[in-house]
Amino acid sequence: MNDTLTTLLEHRSIRAFKDTPLKDEEINAIIDAARSGSTSSYLMAYSMIGVTDPEKKRKLASISNQSYIEKNGHFILFLADYHRHMIHANKEEKDILSKNVQSTEYFMIATIDATIAAQNATVAAESLGIGACYIGSIKRDMDLVNDLFDLPEHVVPLFGLALGYPDEKQDIKPKLPKNAVYFENSYASDEQQKSELEKFDETITTYYQSRQTNKRDDRWTTQVIEKLHNQRNDRLTPFVEEKKFNTR
Ligand SMILES: Cc1cc2nc3c(=O)[nH]c(=O)nc-3n(C[C@H](O)[C@H](O)[C@H](O)COP(=O)(O)O)c2cc1C
């Protein structure tokens, strides 16, 4: 075991932060780590917006009523972004839009690039003792996020990352075990998957009943199927298409 592995294995989302801004050198280290990740075809098809304006943070927090979007040490919005590529393509009168940028493949590339950057930022923050929580709930009002940050075409907000000095102790949440997510040489049988999930449900029931805060009676399978059954964001597909992403 080394420090990197310890940081990774001790990950837990933090949702209560001290109201103290992160130091500039901490923010710079986190951004540098984000910028250093792998990127498909060297495209670097992502950007980040650091949000420090209290009014903008308040408006972002109002989308999902999550106080930690407003009260934290720093907030970064992650974007899938081909705007800079489009500027240069237009200058050189090259059609990169219909050839690639609009395609599902290139939307995937941009979201993967942004996610790698964000996860590097998260691990860097946690290695410095700074807590982090991804914020996907901004997707509930993409138009508000779009207007708040004047996002041009070919830029889609994906998620935020709330960062700060932790003001809570959180248990580590159990994750699916190795046999449930790592298969060798071919995809696992349904039988194997069912048996792994039954065991994991038992682990999760025990976890929810024994954790320090917000104890409850729940199973992983019930929880996620309920979520997948209920959640629907009708505005997301047209929003992404209006930004000229994922249209073919
Ligand atoms: C893309 C993404 C979006 C997320 N959005 C939210 C969010 O809006 N609010 C929140 O409280 N947690 C959010 N989370 C955190 C997850 O709930 C959390 O990672 C998961 O429950 C596992 O817990 P852990 O991070 O403590 O291991 C998000 C995580 C990811 C990866």
Automatic annotation (TrEMBL):
Transmembrane annotation, as ranges:
none
| Record's keyword terms, sorted | Flavoprotein, FMN, NADP, Oxidoreductase
Start and end of every Nitroreductase domain?
10-165
Task: Tell me the GO molecular function terms.
Answer: oxidoreductase activity
Q: Which InterPro entries match?
A: Flavin_OxRdtase_Frp, Nitroreductase, Nitroreductase-like
Gene3D superfamilies, per this entry? NADH Oxidase
- Origin, by domain of life? Bacteria
Question: What family does the Swiss-Prot or TrEMBL record give for this protein?
Answer: Belongs to the flavin oxidoreductase frp family.
What NCBIfam families does this protein's entry cite? PRK10765.1
**Protein's UniProt name:** FMN reductase (NADPH)
